Structure formats: structure tokens, C-alpha cells
């Protein structure tokens, strides 16, 4: 018994669509590291200006120590509708001295990625827990009340 052309076409289409969901989606985020350019940055020879011309602007700079620039490159992949998972990450740290000369060039890998999982739907706090009605009606009477500094307070003190 021969298989009709429509049934065969529908089966092939379903098989093609079914296999595409199993193909991982790969993405690249951040800086594209060129090994030759990175290797050309030498401690004791290069300065901030030469690193800026060679590697470009850093992904971010250190907030607390003005002497470090970071270049971050990440390769991620996922299947279907899953969240992205980092497959590889390279962090390039260029350290400078007070005069702006390169002191060190360090490479770090995926082992420094921190996973932060939120705890529940609320942020735990210390102190008083307020209920629904206290949140809803808690400010009634406080706006303009004496001693709160509002418009009805008369500026504090004993009044007239």
C-alpha cells in the first residue's frame, strides 16, 4: 500500500520541526578577545593610552581601585526555552600602577562565575513585620500631624 504524498510531506515536516528544538542556541556576550592583541600588551612597557588603543574600551573598570580594567567575554548556550548557561568565560584583567603603566595582565576563566539564586519572593529584613492592613492604612494621620514636620505641625515647638 503506497504512502500518499501529503502524509509523507507532513511526516517529513514534523520530523524537521521536531529536530530543530534539540539544536542548542549559542550566543556570545561581551568583548571579542583577539589573542594576538592581548599578547601584545606587555607589563612595564604599555600605558593606559596604549592599552586603550590596542584593546579598546574595557567592559568595566574597578570602582575601588582605579588601577584595574576588565575585559569580559562569555560563550553561552541553551536548548529550546531554557535559560542561558555559560559554557565558557574569559576575564582579562589589566592592572595599572599610579602612573598609568601596565603592571600585570591576568586571564581568568569560568571558575569565577558566581551563581546568585534569589530567596523566595521577598527580601528578608530585620525588625518589625508589617501586615497587609498596616501597609494599606499605616500612613493615615501621619501627614501633617504635629511633631512630624508636615504642613500642620507649625514648625515644632510649643506653638502660639
UniProtKB/TrEMBL annotation:
A GO CC term attached to the entry: Bam protein complex
Outer membrane protein assembly factor BamE domain: residues covered: 30-103
Q: Which UniProt keywords apply?
A: Cell outer membrane, Lipoprotein, Membrane, Signal
Q: Which domain of life is it from?
A: Bacteria
Q: What GO molecular-function term can you cite, just one?
A: protein-macromolecule adaptor activity
Asked if the keyword Lipoprotein belongs to this entry, the reply reads: yes
Q: Where is the signal peptide?
A: 1-21
| UniProt cross-references to InterPro entries, sorted A to Z | BamE, BamE-like, BamE_dom
Which Pfam families does this chain map to? BamE (PF04355)
Name a biological process GO annotation: protein insertion into membrane
> PANTHER family, alphabetically?
OUTER MEMBRANE PROTEIN ASSEMBLY FACTOR BAME
Q: What name has this protein been given in UniProt?
A: Outer membrane protein assembly factor BamE (Lipoprotein component of BamABCDE complex)
Amino acid at each position: 500500500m503506497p504512502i500518499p504524498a501529503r502524509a509523507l510531506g507532513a511526516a517529513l515536516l514534523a520530523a524537521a520541526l521536531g529536530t530543530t528544538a534539540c539544536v542548542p542556541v549559542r550566543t556570545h556576550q561581551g568583548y571579542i578577545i583577539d589573542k594576538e592583541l592581548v599578547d601584545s600588551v606587555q607589563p612595564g612597557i604599555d600605558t593606559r593610552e596604549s592599552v586603550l588603543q590596542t584593546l579598546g574600551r574595557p567592559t568595566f573598570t574597578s570602582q575601588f581601585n582605579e588601577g584595574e580594567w576588565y575585559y569580559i567575554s562569555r560563550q553561552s548556550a541553551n536548548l529550546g526555552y531554557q535559560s542561558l548557561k555559560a559554557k565558557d568565560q574569559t576575564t582579562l584583567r589589566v592592572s595599572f600602577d599610579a602612573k598609568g603603566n601596565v603592571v600585570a595582565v591576568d586571564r581568568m576563566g569560568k571558575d569565577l562565575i558566581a551563581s546568585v539564586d534569589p530567596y523566595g519572593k521577598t527580601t528578608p529584613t530585620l525588625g518589625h513585620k508589617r501586615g497587609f492592613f498596616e501597609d494599606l492604612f499605616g500612613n493615615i494621620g501621619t501627614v501633617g500631624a504635629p511633631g512630624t514636620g508636615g504642613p500642620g505641625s507649625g514648625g515644632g515647638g510649643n506653638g502660639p
